C-alpha cells in the first residue's frame, strides 16, 4: 500500500506540555475563534441598538456560535494535539473545521449582520466589494468546488501533506485552508448571505452532487491505498478514510438540508398585474375626491 510507512507524520514536540506554558500553547490555536465569536456578538449588540424593532434572529446567532465551538473543539485538547501524530485525529479535524464548522458560520449570516450594523456608507462599500470582479471569481461555484474538494486530491495524493505537516506552520495553514474553503463552498451552496455568483437552486444541487461524488472517491482511494502520498500506518489511513466517507456524507446531507431551508422561491406576479412602483405615480396623480 503506497503511503504505509509505519511512521507518523511530523516531528513536532507535544503541544500540550506541562504547566502554564503548556496550557497556553494548547489554547492558543483557538483564540482567533474566540475573537471571531466576540466580534459577531458585538455586531448583534449594535444591530439591536440600531434597530430595536428588528433584532437579529436568535437561531442565526446560535448557529454562528456553534460553528465557532465546533472549530474550537477540533483545535483544543485532546483532538488538537493528537492530530500532530495521528492521521485519524487529523481527519477528524478536517471534518470539523472544513465541513461542520463552516456550515454553522455561514448559517449565522455574518455578512448580512455586518451590513446592518455598520453605517450606510460603509455598507455601500461592502456591497460594491461583493459585486466586484474578484469577488465574483472567488465566489464562482467552480472556484468554491475546486478549493474545498479539489484540493483534497492535491493534499493526499502528492507529497504535499507530508511537506506541510513537517513544518511548524503547516498545521495552522491547513486549518486556515479547510475553514476558509469550507466556508466559501457552504456560502455559495446554502448561505443566507448575498453571493455575487450564486447559481440557481438546481445548479447548486448539481454542484453539491459533484462534491459528494468527489469526496467519496477520495475517501475510497485512501481506504484502498491507491496513489496516496500519506506515509502513516495502514490502519490509520483506513480508519481516517472511513471517517472521511461517513462523516462527509452526514455533513453534505446537512448542507443539502440547509439549502432547502434557506431557499426562497421567486413569486411571479399574475399576468396583467401592474407592479406597485409603477402604479404609485398614477395613484398620486389621480384627483382627490
Radius of gyration: 23 Å
Assembly type = single chain
The level of helicity is over 70%
How confident overall, as mean pLDDT? 85
Q: Tell me the structural class.
A: mainly alpha
Write down the overall geometry: globular
Number of helices: 14
Distance between the termini: 89 Å
Largest sheet, in brief, is: none
Report the count of strand segments.
0
Task: Note the main attributes of this structure.
single chain, 289 residues, mainly alpha, 14 helices, 70% helix
What does this structure look like?
There is one protein chain. The chain has 289 residues and is mainly alpha-helical. Helices cover 70% and strands 0% of the residues. It has helices at 19-27, 31-50, 58-75, 79-82, 87-107, 110-117, 120-130, 133-138, 141-156, 160-165, 170-190, 201-224, 234-262, 276-285. It is globular, with a radius of gyration of 23 Å. The N and C termini lie far apart (89 Å). The model is unreliable at 1-16 and 275-289 (pLDDT under 50).
Amino acid at each position: 500500500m503506497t503511503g504505509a510507512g509505519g511512521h507518523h507524520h511530523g516531528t513536532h514536540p507535544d503541544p500540550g506540555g506541562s504547566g502554564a506554558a503548556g496550557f497556553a500553547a494548547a489554547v492558543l490555536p483557538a483564540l482567533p475563534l474566540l475573537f471571531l465569536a466576540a466580534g459577531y456578538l458585538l455586531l448583534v449588540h449594535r444591530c439591536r441598538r440600531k434597530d430595536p424593532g428588528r433584532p437579529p434572529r436568535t437561531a442565526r446567532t446560535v448557529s454562528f456560535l456553534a460553528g465557532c465551538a465546533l472549530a474550537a473543539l477540533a483545535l483544543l485538547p485532546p483532538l488538537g494535539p493528537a492530530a500532530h501524530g495521528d492521521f485519524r485525529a487529523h481527519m477528524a479535524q478536517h471534518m470539523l473545521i472544513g465541513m461542520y464548522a463552516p456550515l454553522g458560520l455561514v448559517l449565522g449570516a455574518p455578512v448580512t449582520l455586518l451590513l446592518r450594523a455598520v453605517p450606510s456608507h460603509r455598507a455601500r462599500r461592502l456591497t460594491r466589494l461583493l459585486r466586484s470582479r474578484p469577488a465574483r471569481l472567488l465566489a464562482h461555484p467552480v472556484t468554491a468546488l475546486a478549493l474545498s474538494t479539489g484540493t483534497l486530491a492535491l493534499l493526499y495524493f502528492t507529497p504535499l501533506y507530508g511537506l506541510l505537516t513537517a513544518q511548524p506552520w503547516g498545521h495552522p495553514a491547513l486549518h486556515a485552508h479547510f475553514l476558509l474553503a469550507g466556508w466559501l463552498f457552504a456560502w455559495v451552496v446554502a448561505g443566507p448571505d448575498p453571493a455575487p455568483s450564486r447559481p440557481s437552486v438546481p445548479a447548486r444541487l448539481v454542484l453539491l452532487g459533484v462534491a459528494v461524488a468527489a469526496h467519496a472517491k477520495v475517501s475510497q482511494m485512501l481506504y484502498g491505498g491507491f496513489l496516496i502520498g500519506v506515509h502513516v500506518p495502514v490502519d490509520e489511513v483506513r480508519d481516517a478514510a472511513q471517517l472521511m466517507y461517513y462523516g462527509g456524507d452526514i455533513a453534505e446531507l446537512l448542507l443539502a438540508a440547509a439549502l432547502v431551508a434557506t431557499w426562497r422561491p421567486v413569486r411571479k406576479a399574475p399576468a396583467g398585474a401592474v407592479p406597485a412602483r409603477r402604479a404609485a405615480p398614477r395613484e398620486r396623480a389621480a384627483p382627490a375626491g
